[in-house]
Amino acid sequence: MTSTRWPRGSRLNDGPVTRVRHAIRAGVAIIAVLSTSASAGLAQEERSFAQERNPAAQERNPAADEERDRAFIEALRREDPDTAARYTDLREARRAAIAELQKVQTRYAAAGPQLRPVMLPQLKDAQRRYAETSLAVLDFLDARDRRALARYEEETGRIKALLEEHTRTRADLEKIRRGE
């Protein structure tokens, strides 16, 4: 007979140590997976934003950046394929917005002073699309991090409940040992 209170695979007749081990392993596994994938995604986005702001940062190894991005997407796919597809769509939209912005900036810079007022609305539109797509990526990462935080809090609650049960059991066992 399995219990809904304990991690999958544990049984009521498992000893308290076994249940603790199952709970701790589940918590550690969740934390490891989520912290690795969340930090990889955040680091990837921070690198992308830094590259756009700092020309020196653009001298990074694109192959290494692409590999980190691929690893992040693969981690997302393992968690939820729909989430990975959504991130990929957001990332591609952002890349397209960056390419369009760079193209418009180049045309704006090449235009003479007389044509710049005509080009300014195109530049503003490209900047707006870039900002919108960048915000969409950040919103995605924030929502994902909030979900991870909720899972951490839930798992922490389970472990605290387990520790409280152990405290009660310990007190009962101490009473028995003292002969009370």
Question: What's a quick, concise take on this entry?
Answer:
The chain has four helices and no strands.
Structure description:
The protein is an all-alpha fold. It has one domain. It contains four helices and no strands. Helix 3 runs antiparallel to helix 4. The longest helix has 63 residues. 10% of the residues are buried. The mean pLDDT is 80.
Keywords, separated by commas or semicolons:
180 residues, mainly alpha, 4 helices, rod-shaped
Q: How are the secondary structure elements laid out?
A:
Blueprint: H1 16-53, H2 62-79, H3 81-110, H4 116-178
Helix pairs in contact: 1-2, 1-4, 2-3, 3-4
Tally of helical segments:
4
Global Rg: 26 Å
**SS content category:** mainly alpha
Largest sheet: none
Report the span from N to C terminus.
33 Å
Strands, count? 0
What is the molecular shape?
rod-shaped
Taken together, the total number of domains comes to 1
Look at the structure and give the mean pLDDT: 80
- β-sheet strand percentage: under 5%
> What is the helix fraction of residues, given as a range?
over 70%
Low-confidence stretches: none
What is the H/E order? Answer: HHHH
